Predict the structure.
Amino acid sequence: MKYTLIVAILSLIAAPTSQAQLAGTLNQVVSPVRPIIDRTSSDLNAIREEARRKAQSSIEGARDLSTVASGVLGDIPAPQFIAPAATTILSTSGQVVVNEVTVESGFLAVEKEWLFLGEEADKVHFQGANIEIQKAQFLPALSQWLFKVKVTGDENDVSSIRNSLPHNLQSQIGRNHIYLSQTKPTSNGSFQEISSEKLETCPTPLRIGMVDTHVASNHPLLSHVNLTQASFIVGHNQDRNQEQDGNAGSETDVAFSSDHGTAVASLLAASLPKSSQVFNASVFYSRNSVSQGATLMSLIEGLNYLASQQVDAINMSLAGPDNPILARVINQLDKSGIQIIAAVGNEGPASLPLYPAAYTETLGITAVDKSNVIYRWANQGDYVDFAAFGVSVDAAHPNGKTIRQTGTSMASPRATALYACFLREKQERNAALLKLQQLALDAGAPGRDSVFGFGVLP
């Protein structure tokens, strides 16, 4: 009893202060499901290297085999990475909330905004004539300060800002990049009644985090799980009712959609047993009717929230550029024992690597159809670890029905649930990763390859 009380007090101190976050903390104390496990960093790279070594002897012959057996059609054009056009996001009162700009390699970022992750005392370096700190906050789960810095003059080049910092701090600043959800629009947006098809679920309730859009929590496909969510959408009034769906109503609010997050949550729930806990960090604003964007600032705030909930894995069905701030946070979460599972992206086989899936600490998930043929617009590369069903998937829609969705976003939830289940079973991260590898059905080139990774998860 004394131990439970201490945990409750420490959790309340570390957790964010919004009503939904407080509810999540209380839920953790009242009905904890997380066992004591080995929370050390995993040897994911070592597991990858061992698979690569075993396949080396047959790699030449496998290249030809991969072209045929992988389901990759030879006549697919080689698409280059093309980011969507930058846009300006307005509040309901017409105020500019996010002014997107196109930056290096065609990626999107918030105009003249940078993030710095470090100590509180480091703020002295951002007090120049052309630089001002717009927001400073301590992230308790990450034990660091996050500063949002605005360039007020003409200086808009990362090298100029970085070079003004002491050498040991220059790797701790990066643009406030925009990250995008990874689902392609459906060709026919017809709604369907809820299917009774069920996946094999874990025998033990799980504790999983997700970073996504808002989730329509009243959907029938989510009725068997305990869902807690908190909003970190830029420009969104976090004091309003977290369960309200659709466009926000206050002057500071921006339009947001529940479509993507509701779909991802339902696919997670399909693999979860009753009483499992899902914590959602809502970070995406609506860019248009089919595209959602999240600032890196929102992502970091959301990841800090999920880490404070002591989840065992975090699903990230989003993708974007490499960023030193995101890289540091992902590395820190890995060291704390939280596995990140992320969609590899839908930009095609010739795309640049997308992140966070391409970070070495992350499990990168691609999508296949029901015949285990690879999704034609899925990213490919040495950061692909597993494939899962993600083409024409029946997923929940906020209107209470289901709609077919396609993309690597739809594949990663299954991998996230399986990993979390094996973590509960094995009580150790590397053992869980190895069991995930053993479960995967090898496809394409023998061994781990750049199309399917270790193989297709059932």
Notes: The domain at 88-177 is CATH 3.30.70 (Alpha-Beta Plaits). Residues 1-34, 62-79, 238-252 have pLDDT under 50 and may be disordered.
